Amino acid sequence: MSDDLFAETVSLSLGGRAVLNQVTARFRKGELMAIVGPNGAGKSSLLSCLAGLRRPDKGRISLDGAVVADIPARSRARAMAFLAQTPEIAWDVDVRTFVGLGRTPHLGAFGPSAEDAVAIDQAIAMTGLDDFAERAITRLSGGERARALIARALAGQTDWLLADEPLTGLDPGHALDAVDLFRRLAHDEGKGVVVTLHDLTLAARFADRVLLLDRGCLVADGPPGQALTPQALAMAYGVQTRTHVGAAGPLIEILRRVD
Amino acid sequence: MKTRSTWLVCGALAATLALLFVVSLCAGRVWAPWSAWVSNGADPRWAIVFGLRLPRTILALLVGGALGLSGAALQGYTRNPLADPGALGVSSAAAMGAVLTLYLGTAAQASWILPAAAMVGAGLGVAALLALAGVTSSIVTFILAGFVVQTVCTAGISLALNLAPNPWAVDEIISWVMGSLADRSVEEVRIAAPGVVAGCLVLLTQGRALDALTLGEQGAQSLGVSLTRTRLLLAVGVALAVGSSVAVTGVIGFVGLIVPHLLRPWVGSRPGAVLLPSLLGGAALTLGADILVRLTPAAEEVKLGVATAVLGGPFFLWMLMAMRRRLA
Prior knowledge:
heterodimer; A: alpha/beta; B: mainly alpha; ABC transporter involved in vitamin B12 uptake, BtuC; 0% strand; globular
């Protein structure tokens, strides 16, 4: 089984609390996969394990057969880009410099090459930030900053993109743009894209596959129509839902709290 | 990418350094013009230029460069513009190491013992600082961690003074704490140079890791940066550079704080781009300050460490107020 990211019976505890329990899932290139679940379900933990930033207590995560946490950091960084949930931007650099940080694992001994500059330009263009490229990152609005963060992840031109709630702070239009971009990256460029999401409707509409996590356990894994059933959502979120067929695809309406 | 402006700034700083170098050889209580330099010993001022001022000038460049670069590197790692080896107690930790050998009398046994103790002290100081500040980059935590290191080391030095066996030791210890470049010889240059050069080289290799840390620790890790390695090399680099500086000049504060801050508007905030200019700028600032100190009209020369503290205190205050305005 090559070209995939495979989590086998992964368990993880943090501070004595089990956050992931025997999760097994396979992620493929060319697919947009959404990880959904209530707060504290283990979405971020699973994503950071997949990115090799955390080693699971039990089980293994492999990328094309090699254990992710054992791959040399630089090679891993060339294969996978990771976008943290609450990303830090410590210094007030301009957007182009910031996006350029994504080239770190590719830089040669003598600094950025022409290839690096092209990758940075492409990432800026793909996220529609051309007009902001020279602007200081602290002068961007929340939505523009979220796009700059995505651009930073794209600049690495990695085969895999793992993003933890990348839509936080984006208005509906820009959220749509971002999900559409993730979908194109998966379908047109053959990347494996894994995102954690809170918006069930966006997940249902755009993801090729949805993983539903609940208290550290994987409770559903499949195409949105099969994974996001009212029963599974009631179990995981404790809410009653109804799925409508909207003009642009499924629409998951939250009806009421169930106990 | 502000690569071009970075090189322009470095060029300008290098030119300033060359100018200050010449002024430094001329200036002091006795003005030594060019004719004295080329007299080859005939003019009594020749001895002043080459016996006293040349080593003093070289030392100012070494120590200033080490402090400026260490400040820039610490600021990059902690993502905090208020980090400085002096203000955060690293220099005091180095001084405590040195003072301990003076107090115990071991310093007299071999010339390498005192600088080695200063480096160990600086290394422990950086390690304690990074450990206490932890993974958070909160300004408050970091300042408090520095405060703890500073307090402990100052207390240690005071204790050594308190229990000093003789007045000679007290005198010696006080001179570490005040920091000065006066009356240093080629011997001091020989002691400080290897550590400063090695430490600076180590720190200059960390530019990319510091750049990546702009994205926080997790972000840097995901870009292939090993935090353990960065932390270790940073501690080693700062310990070597600041430790060997303090070993020969005592505590000279605030250079590492002021210099990167003044240079950021010119070279951009990318931590890696601030490193080399801070090395040059630190050398220029220290040498400039030392020239001014030499020209003070008082009977007793003002110690350089005292002068930088007098200037640095208000600067620190000004930075704090500017930051508060920005956060408000």
